[in-house]
Input
Amino acid sequence: MKQSRCLATSRTLVHNLALRKDRSPMKLTTAVLGAGAALSLTTAVVGAARLRQDARHQAERNEAVLARNQLDWLAQMSINADLAKLWTPEDMDVEEYIQLLKANQLICTLSLRDRLGFVHDGHLPFFASMVMSGDVCRRYWTRFGDLRAREAEGDERAEYFTRVLDQAAKNHPQAQPAAA
Output
């Protein structure tokens, strides 16, 4: 389809170049060379756009693979107490850590969906509030939210995601101090 449009554009260009404004005929070779240059330029522009699209898709595939690795690791940690014990912070119970890892799994899944464009504009605050409606997710955020914010620094999308989740955690009714 793109090639046929380029060829049609080239034919039109040859015709237009052959009849200049003063309507005096141009040499056919000049018209053909002009059309060839236009076709080459069009091909280069289409090729550059294709390369940008391929690079974006490769970055998305890489991100999905890395996220899959992280989710697999979290899954293993959350079902194997002996493995989780190796990574549990000193001031935390292994069972609590396993629960927080499961909350992290949920948050990582939402993050991946958001980064790949599966969370439509404006829906992230809704999903964040749904995630933070769970006590375990709020406990996770209280403990590791600052770490996630530091990890997100420099990545606009990740910083926005973190701000939205932080706001959802703070806005949850059970996160509000009790009225005296």
Observations:
- The helical segments are 2-18, 28-79, 81-87, 94-115, 124-131, 135-152, 156-171.
